[in-house]
Specification:
The complex is a heterodimer. Helices cover about 75% and strands about 0% of the residues of chain A. By secondary structure, chain A is mainly alpha-helical. The radius of gyration of chain A is 24 Å and the shape is globular. The relative contact order of chain A is 0.13. By secondary structure, chain B is mainly α. In chain B, helix 5 runs antiparallel to helix 6 and helix 13 runs parallel beside helix 14. Chain B contains 15 helices and no strands. Chain B has a single domain, classed as MetI-like fold (Orthogonal Bundle), CATH 1.10.3720. The chains are: A mainly alpha, B mainly alpha. Chains A and B meet through helix 1, helix 5, helix 6, helix 9 and helix 10 of A and helix 7, helix 13, helix 14 and helix 15 of B.
Amino acid sequence: MLTFTVRRLILAVPTLLFISLVIFMLLELAPGDPMAQVPLTVPPEVKEKMRLALGLGEPVHIRFWKWLVQFFWIEPQVLIDHIFGTSFSAGDLRVISWQTRSPVMDIVVQRMPQTLWVVGTAYVVAILIAMPIGIYSAYRQYSWFDQMGTFVSMVGFSVPPFFSGVLVIVIFSVQLGWFPSIYDTTLVVDSWDSFVKQLQQMVMPVMVLALQITAQLSRFMRASMLDNLNQDYVRTARAKGLGEYVVVMVHVLRNSMIPVVTVIALGIPSIFGGAIITEQVFKVNGIGQLLIGAIQANDLPMVQTLTFIFAVLIVLFNLIADVLYGVLDPRIRYD
Amino acid sequence: MTEAAKDKTPQHSSVQGGPTTAPRSQLRDVWDQFKSHRGALFGGCLFLLIVLGVVVGPYVYWNDAKFLPTGRDFIKLRDMRPIYHALWDPSAKMDWAYPLGTDNLGRDTLARLMFGGRVSLAVGMAAMILALVLGSFIGVIAGYFKKLDGILMRMTDLFLALPLLPMILVAAVLFREALSKSIGPEGGVFVLIVCLIGITSWMPTARIVRGDVLAIKEREFVLAARSIGTKPRSIITRHILPNVLSPIMVSATLGIATAIITESALSFLGFGFPPDFPTWGRLLNDAVDRMTLFPERVLWPGILISLTVLSVNYLGDGLRDALDPRIRGR
């Protein structure tokens, strides 16, 4: 198992390099000009100097190499410095945002907690809802509960988050006035009242994100349970006289969880992608909104870094899913 | 799959006194299975209805989507409520000539919904066809030619590891100006969005098609075709492609759904079509600012997107069951 993990880790490096190259070339080939926003009264030679100051003067491969060095060598050093108080990165040039002139990673670190809170809670809530639904609809296949579950998950698939988000705002914050429609990230949770407020503002974004994940997960859980319910070992367990609860919740469930756990791991990066839209709807200033803002402001280093972070998440969780599958299922041996 | 079904038809049963029932055609079997899936039938009808509505609607409907009232008309026509609003608020500003009301510039909502539906559906279909052609091509080539299999599938894996939504957003912004200049603002964005969605959604199709091609390649009829000297090209087009048609059709329906959602998401985030060119996502985006006062303007485009995607998803579900010979006849 260890050799497999190490091999996958080594394989991930060329993948990530390729992805970073694709992202870099996409931004490179784009006809947009970062100097387009500069007033026309600025003389061309000054514009040229500004371009050089942004690091745009050098050939493509040198800039790509510099970005790689900054991202993979200097930024980890900054992180180590931050944790241990050392000064490895003193004097090194970090990836600088063109909008704010501060290091990109600092801004990302500021924005990350909001996204993680909302996305993480939504994921946990979705898993907690999806599992019982999936288990029960598989156990009572084709019952009215199962049919309802199929329909609701079909609706969950089909209603895009930018509509379900707006819909819950119209219902719960405009008509009923229960929850605030805008997520206030400056809120400091230090008392019961502020905690309640935090809960209130988290309900709607979490609900919207969780609906989509629940739809997928409950269907997957159901299919996985159905695969296992007809197996011979279930009959054996019943024949031994085990109670129905033990048969379903211990024997079947544990075996059905194997593929579901990998699907849960695989779904985490896509949820960050989905959070881009949800954050926009509820005005959560997380990394999704940071990305949208950076794209609109033509802030290429920020866009590049954020897109690459998304890519790292995808590759990382693919790897985790593969390894988990091997760890959980003794029938699967990679080496 | 055609071959598989031919094997099943009772050709030799005539030896024992002849078949009791007439042989059934494959299409008939598929249709019977499809009919028995109530959701699929409903979804198919709903999808046809929506397509018919947005295609024929503008010819029948009396208001023009592009008409922008000026002067006194503007004051008179703007912010009209839908007619059903009179049920609970008789004093609301409404007119029977504008069944779903007008927006803040006095443009008719129903006409814009129909026009936007045309654009959204056109983008969805075009992107789906592009993704399908790309995916089937890569899948067939990878499945049929062993030498290309490894590299093409690695490429598919790499594409699946790309963060697609962020990259579509970035590309949509960066390439818009150049394309708008060369093809025109609306045409440019249309081509751009269709290409972006198509290029980023062919991977599942390619994987499924490759798997099926790998299985079919080993069957006897392909061996027979090869033994009489058929060239790889005609083996693929005449023997393999017809047999992988059913997974391609299923991914086609699901492809429309994802393409419509992606396009609406792009328009919703403000990276899609220009503001005066309505699509369902764009209409939804425009209405969000005034949703406290005019919730109906948010609801209609959203409901239409959701209904279309829902119907297409059910259609795909039913098609998958109907086209799968293992499920059919059960």
